[in-house]
Design goal:
By secondary structure, the chain is an all-alpha fold. The protein has helices spanning 3-10, 14-23, 41-56, 60-68, 73-104, 117-125, 131-142, 150-161, 164-179, 190-199, 215-222, 226-240. It folds into two domains: 3-82, Multidrug-efflux Transporter Regulator, Chain: A, Domain 2 (Orthogonal Bundle), CATH 1.10.1660; 113-240, no CATH class. The longest helix has 32 residues, at 73-104. Residues 1-69 form the HTH merR-type domain. GO terms for molecular function: DNA binding; DNA-binding transcription factor activity.
């Protein structure tokens, strides 16, 4: 039979069969005088095995090794390894579904509802000032889920936010920043606000080497009004001192 007939019989494409030839899974039969390759029953059997093994999830390299080992030792090892991978995927899927169920059961959902449980706890415990500054603060905090050392930072911020004086200071800072929305960059309120802003950050989280030219920091400052951005610039410089 020719390659098209073989492909139809085993439910594969001719392209897949040629790829198996190229990868060494199926020997290429010699061409006949008419220029066509002729396939036999053995080729059907091998292709059926390849299809069954790939549908189980084995890679082509694993399939090739399994077919080469008549005793089935490599196949057993590959199947055991695959079963372990599937078990880990199954556990991960169960965990993801549990998280989804918890989200679906919430009365209210918004874009940042999908943060980790640790970060969600922090956001729930911190003051939630209104206005653009309050919104930006919570959006930036949500980015902690992607940051290295997230757990340590979240723990420090949660302990910090539990202090009533710090909570009151945070709300006051947000209010004062909002009041600078239309102020010039030389407004006299900027310098004392920058000092208080540094006070509102846990001492162990105040960076000592802030790069004001880092693209992310530049983007954050550009999202603020000029006077508000100047407050953060001065606060960052104080952190370096």
């Amino acid at each position: 039979m020719r390659i098209g007939e073989l492909a139809e019989m085993v439910g594969l494409s001719t392209r897949a069969i040629r790829h198996y030839h190229h990868r060494g899974l199926l020997p290429e039969p010699a061409r006949r005088t008419n220029g066509y390759r002729e396939y036999g029953v053995r080729d059907v059997v091998v292709l059926a095995r390849i299809r069954r093994l790939t549908e189980l999830g084995l890679s082509l390299d694993e399939v090739r090794d399994a077919l080469a080992d008549e005793q089935g030792r490599d196949l057993r090892e590959a199947l055991v390894a695959l079963d372990g991978d599937l078990a880990r995927q199954e556990a991960a899927i169960r965990e993801r579904r549990a998280k989804l169920a918890a989200l679906i059961d919430r009365a209210e959902l918004h874009a940042d509802s999908t943060v980790s449980g640790e970060l969600a706890g922090l956001l729930a415990e911190m003051p939630a000032p209104g206005g653009e500054i309050g919104t930006l603060e919570r959006e930036l905090l949500a980015l902690l889920d992607m940051a290295p050392g997230r757990d340590e930072v979240v723990s420090a911020l949660r302990a910090h936010a539990a202090d009533p004086a710090i909570r009151a200071l945070s709300e006051d800072l947000a209010r004062r920043l909002e009041e600078l929305a239309d102020a010039p960059v030389d407004d006299p309120r900027i310098a004392p606000l920058a000092i208080d802003l540094v006070r509102g950050i846990p001492a162990n989280l105040v960076p000592s080497d802030v790069d004001l030219d880092h693209p992310f920091n530049v983007a954050v400052l550009e999202s603020l009004k000029p006077a508000q951005a100047e407050v953060f610039r001065q606060a960052m410089r104080q952190g370096e001192a």
